[in-house]
Amino acid sequence: MRCSHCGREFEPAEAQQFCAFCGGDLESKPGRDADLGEPELVSNDLEYLDSPGYCPWEDQERLGFLQGLTMTLRESLFAPNRFFSRMPVEGGMANPLLYSLIVSTTANVLYLIMAIVARDPVLTRTELSGLQVMLVGISIPVLILVTIAVWAGLLHLSLSLVGGANRDFEATLRVVCYTSGPDFLKIIPYAGSIIAVLWRCYLIVVGLKEAHRVSTGVAVLAFALPAVVCCGAIFGMAVLVVAMGVLAV
């Protein structure tokens, strides 16, 4: 017979329950726990984790929802070079967008709850009612989608300007989506938001470098251009408002 776990053929003894080579249960299917029915990685599955074009989140059929989510979150945060070097750059935008929606919405709702419980000074001064806070929470997913679209568009345009857009727009959007993990750091008091922004900036640079196969310098330049333009626009608007105020006096 052929073992369904390791694929080796052998002649089992009478009433033999386990494979003579890998020790797998001959009566169960690979990747499944016979008692719990939950997916688990077996040794033969580990080769998939390092194959090109692989993302745990997009392999839920093998890993399941929770394991695919946590593995993607962990690898994108703590092993970004490895994760983005084998991240699929095509295959549809639905999966990465859904991942970002789940991660960022959960993180921002937790941050909002923490801010309300801790009586954040900004929320206290704005005196938001319960209904207004609820509306803010509902609008979070919409704001996340708009931010992803705008940010991915600016980054891809910037990559094109510096000659680094070696892949389609989808690759850039996937990088933006799979760098949502640092949003969870916002719940850290005081410095959490700053750490989250800095960590995400780093992940985006790494993601652009690996996904588009460009140098670190090109990735940094492509990331910096939109940031400089946005900051310049905000500064220009502030100067204009001040100037109008002075002239009005």
Structure description:
- With 249 residues, the chain is mainly alpha-helical.
- Helix content is 60%, strand content 0%.
- It contains nine helices and no strands.
- The chain is globular.
- The chain starts with 59 loop residues before the first helix and ends with a helix.
- About 6% of the residues have low confidence.
Quickly describe the structure:
60% of the residues lie in helices and 0% in strands. The protein is mainly alpha-helical. Helix 4 (94-117) crosses helix 6 (130-161) and helix 6 crosses helix 9 (216-248).
Please describe the topology of this protein:
Blueprint: H1 60-63, H2 65-78, H3 80-85, H4 94-117, H5 121-126, H6 130-161, H7 169-177, H8 192-212, H9 216-248
Helix count, DSSP H or I runs of 4 or more residues:
9
Low-confidence parts: 30-45
Report the C-alpha radius of gyration, rounded.
24 Å
Strand content: under 5%
Mind describing the biggest β-sheet? Answer: none
Would you report the number of β strands? 0
Please estimate the helix content. 55-70%
Please report the distance between the alpha carbons of the first and last residues.
92 Å
The string of secondary-structure elements, in order, is HHHHHHHHH
Question: Which class best fits the helix and strand makeup?
Answer: mainly alpha
Overall geometry comes to globular
Taking all residues together, what is the mean pLDDT? 80
